[in-house]
């Protein structure tokens, strides 16, 4: 990575006065720790982190990015760095880290607490983090990719509400707008699929929480559902997923440059069930990987072009 | 399973008038469906469902219960019924189903929506469901097992709050008290480890949400943390985990007889980090499996003793 004399390098920030007092910091859910692993040696060169729900998909991504950057090792099967646990999976190639986060805000928040501490302990700088996921679209052709402008909650408010010591704490869900624009531009250059920028609704449930008619419980009508989704669409919501609010809030607090790129698997105005074929589903799921892979490659090439 | 003429068999209830109108019901996150699988043939005999966060632990449980019931097949490696997805894992032996649910309320709620529909489609009756998990204890020796009396939220209220179509819906978190008492009695008979009954706090976050001092962010003091945990303890809270509220609310709605049995890995009044050895941790994690395995075996024997 090129470094210029005058460039300010941005660290990964933790906000915890107690952390420095720990004899060792055990990143329990990642099966890593400062007492057992040399984190600066293992992770100090990380510049891009991609996160997504499924462990299989995040392994697929590391294989894709290795090929994209021309640094794949045909003998390597990209071992899972977090093999000591089955909670999350982590893969690394060059300056790119790929981590799974499971489903929902509580699951991603544990992973992000430990990932942010990991990047901090490893003294990483200038880190860009992108969530590559799946979502339900509103009024979009399935397969359309959405780059999130702003993450809003189920009441369409762009905030992340948390209970801390039983008290309500509200945090901003701003993402890096410049990064979102660069990703949108990259998709245009690629020209392989349609990508739009819009708001993303983040919910705590997939069925009732997103107004689906096919859960075990549905105590509202189809008309209620359509009213709700139409109201969301009118507020600029292009898609619905389950992690962006915590992701945006936590990345902002730690100074990470963050974006959310999700493919849409269904148009929720037309249906709820995911009944497309496995092959089509897989090709839609690959789109955020292809877009982010292209963007990362472009960034690395541009940085290498800066005189050292 | 013995059936008496006069016994009323309790079905698994869905509350969704739209479900009957579906041509097929795709249980997407379980990679199962009514159009692709004969659910009554595959699952119709299920009487006990055990759920827990980790896929590895739920596979361990099915091996344990198979040995306990004397119906293990030395040649079988207990294939994952949900192998088509990496979101959840499911194993079955005899009348016992073992399913993983990931971390947190959003993750368990997707699994439960699809599991409840599965049990309904399979026409299962008289199903008992038990969550076997891990938790942080309050004022308990690590390794103590807690059978949940009532699940309370981070404000110590025994309710589960959800946003449905953007509106707040509040549901009860009652569990089956008779089942909890039977489990406590079973632990006394077993005599292998200490088990208590108490309230369980269910949070949306592991670090700030549970007052930990070792997350990436901690904007409160150690004194604030202790005040909060002491207040919880005074309200009868014995342990803290991240799924019981949704589990209790959803099982109650579907008429499932439900209990939560969690081991405690740390006494939160004394510390936050999970720094016990892997072997001790593993032995603590096995305790809910041992207790629930013993209980299920006893139940099956008692039912077999009823004249047909």
UniProtKB/TrEMBL annotation, chains A, B:
The keyword Transferase applies. The keyword Glycoprotein does not apply. Pathway: Pyrimidine metabolism; UMP biosynthesis via salvage pathway; uracil from uridine (phosphorylase route): step 1/1. One of its GO terms (molecular function) is uridine phosphorylase activity. One of its GO terms (cellular component) is cytosol. Phosphate binds at residues 87, 131-134. Residues 47-292 form the Nucleoside phosphorylase domain. Its EC number is 2.4.2.3. Keywords: Glycosyltransferase, Transferase. It catalyses: uridine + phosphate = alpha-D-ribose 1-phosphate + uracil. Substrate binds at residues 210, 212. GO terms for biological process: nucleotide catabolic process; UMP salvage; uridine catabolic process. Belongs to the PNP/UDP phosphorylase family. Catalyzes the reversible phosphorylytic cleavage of uridine to uracil and ribose-1-phosphate which can then be utilized as carbon and energy sources or in the rescue of pyrimidine bases for nucleotide synthesis. Shows broad substrate specificity and can also accept deoxyuridine and other analogous compounds. This is Uridine phosphorylase. It comes from Hippocampus comes (Tiger tail seahorse). The lineage of its organism: Eukaryota, Metazoa, Chordata, Craniata, Vertebrata.
